[in-house]
């Protein structure tokens, strides 16, 4: 006696397929007689998915309503045909050879298929083809269960096109920035040079007129030569210096996008030891202590990764707290296929409102008391993004900062 019927309407497509497998293998008679249960499974699949059944030669023997609706063919037009009737010509011959080899061997095949409907429209289906085997283990028919994923594929294609468009725009922008920055340097040098020359001439003129009665008796002339012109020249020189710094930063930033990467395993302990050696004078001068823990290897471009950590250590020294001895510590670990590094200091820290901005171009924490372009962290972020890496910060004012860098781990580290 058979028990009550299972509620297949609540089963997923994968559960229905697994049940079909069990019935085909004869491993489980189930809650109903096999024929009855197959009928119930078929009804559930028809409501759930696009379903087609073919004979051993691939001729369609059954097509449900969803198949007819999506393909735009009537059931009579589909029965007796093979699936070449909806072949879009998108997939190569090797693709279908692999499909038939798989199901012909009695194995389940899964994949995405691009088909063409009767009206010429294209649609995509996520497909599972399950072979039913005879007593000799040979396929006697196949059931194909499909889900319409056309919209998903369209969305993926649009995202891919958008990513390509953004990459092209980014490349154009980098070229514009490079050309503009490079070409602006020439007139800037002229302004800088001639303003200095004018300043020298102004002092010479002051000397020549210093003993002249007209000069001595004219307060207006003295103000022009002694105050107005020198002040104007100082403003010009300050503006030129700032523009020069900005243009240098733009050039450095634009070059990043054109630099070729050489990704290789990196000995990070050796790299940080080398960086520490080059910074030995700065460390002694500041009185800070640098602690280097054993670090894992990672994958990256040696020159650019060196630039990132040199910048992080330089920043740690730059923003030490004058009220306590500076301590900088570098540590690392491997987790989930990533090599993670931490550069920790006990410096002045970063206020919460500034933490989101530290990676913005030309942002400087203390522009009046520290030198630089405000590009170091922006460049570090760009360098890491190009190498499947990332950087972030955790900090509290008066407690110090921790900058984290994550890069792909080497195969050896992953094992």
TrEMBL record:
GO terms, molecular function: phosphorelay response regulator activity; phosphorelay sensor kinase activity; protein kinase activator activity
SUPFAM superfamilies: ATPase domain of HSP90 chaperone/DNA topoisomerase II/histidine kinase, Homodimeric domain of signal transducing histidine kinase, PYP-like sensor domain (PAS domain)
Gene Ontology cellular component annotations, sorted alphabetically: membrane
InterPro entries assigned: BphY/WalK/GraS-like, HATPase_C_sf, HATPase_dom, His_kinase_dom, HisK_dim/P_dom, HisK_dim/P_sf, PAC, PAS
Key words, A-Z: Coiled coil, Kinase, Membrane, Phosphoprotein, Transferase
NCBIfam families: sensory_box
Coiled-coil zones: 149-176
GO terms (BP aspect): osmosensory signaling via phosphorelay pathway
Enzyme class per UniProt: transferase
Catalytically driven reaction(s): ATP + protein L-histidine = ADP + protein N-phospho-L-histidine
PAC domain segment(s): 109-161
Enzyme Commission number: 2.7.13.3
Protein known as: histidine kinase
Histidine kinase domain mapped to chain residues: 179-411
A Pfam family reported for this protein in Swiss-Prot or TrEMBL: HATPase_c
Domain PAS: 37-94
């Amino acid at each position: 006696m058979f028990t009550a019927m299972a509620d297949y309407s609540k089963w997923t497509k994968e559960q229905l397929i697994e049940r079909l497998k069990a019935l085909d293998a004869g491993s489980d008679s189930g809650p109903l007689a096999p024929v009855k249960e197959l009928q119930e499974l078929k009804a559930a699949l028809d409501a759930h998915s696009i379903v087609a059944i073919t004979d051993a030669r691939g001729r369609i023997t059954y097509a449900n309503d969803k198949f007819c609706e999506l393909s735009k063919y009537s059931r009579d037009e589909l029965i007796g045909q093979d699936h070449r009737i909806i072949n879009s010509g998108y997939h190569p011959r090797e693709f279908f050879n692999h499909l038939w080899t798989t199901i012909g061997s009695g194995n389940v095949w899964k994949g995405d298929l691009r088909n063409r409907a009767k009206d010429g429209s294209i649609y995509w289906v996520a497909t599972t083809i399950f072979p039913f085997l005879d007593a000799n283990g040979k396929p006697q028919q196949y059931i194909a269960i499909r889900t319409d994923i056309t919209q998903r594929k369209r969305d993926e294609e649009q995202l891919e096109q958008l990513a390509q468009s953004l990459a092209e725009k980014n490349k154009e922008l980098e070229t514009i920035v490079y050309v503009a920055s490079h070409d602006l340097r020439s007139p800037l040098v002229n302004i800088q040079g001639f303003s200095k020359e004018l300043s020298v001439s102004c002092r010479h003129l002051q000397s020549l007129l210093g003993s002249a009665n007209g000069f001595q008796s004219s307060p207006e002339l003295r103000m022009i030569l002694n105050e107005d012109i020198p002040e104007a020249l100082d403003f010009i020189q300050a503006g030129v210096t700032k523009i020069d710094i900005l243009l240098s930063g733009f050039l450095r930033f634009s070059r990043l996008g054109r630099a070729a990467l050489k990704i290789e395993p990196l000995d990070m302990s050796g790299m940080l030891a080398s960086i520490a050696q080059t910074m030995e004078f700065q460390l002694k001068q500041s009185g800070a202590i640098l602690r280097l823990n054993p670090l894992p290897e990672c994958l990256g471009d040696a020159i650019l990764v060196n630039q990132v950590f040199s910048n992080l250590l330089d920043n740690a020294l730059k923003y030490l707290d004058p009220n306590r001895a500076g301590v900088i510590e570098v540590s690392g670990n491997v987790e989930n296929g990533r090599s993670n590094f931490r550069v920790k200091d006990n410096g002045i820290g970063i206020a919460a409102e500034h933490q989101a901005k530290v990676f913005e171009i030309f942002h400087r924490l203390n522009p009046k008391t520290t030198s630089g372009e405000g590009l170091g962290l922006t460049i570090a972020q760009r360098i890491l993004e190009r190498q499947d890496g990332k950087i972030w910060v955790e900090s509290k004012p008066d407690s110090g900062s921790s900058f984290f860098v994550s890069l792909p781990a080497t195969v050896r580290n992953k094992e």
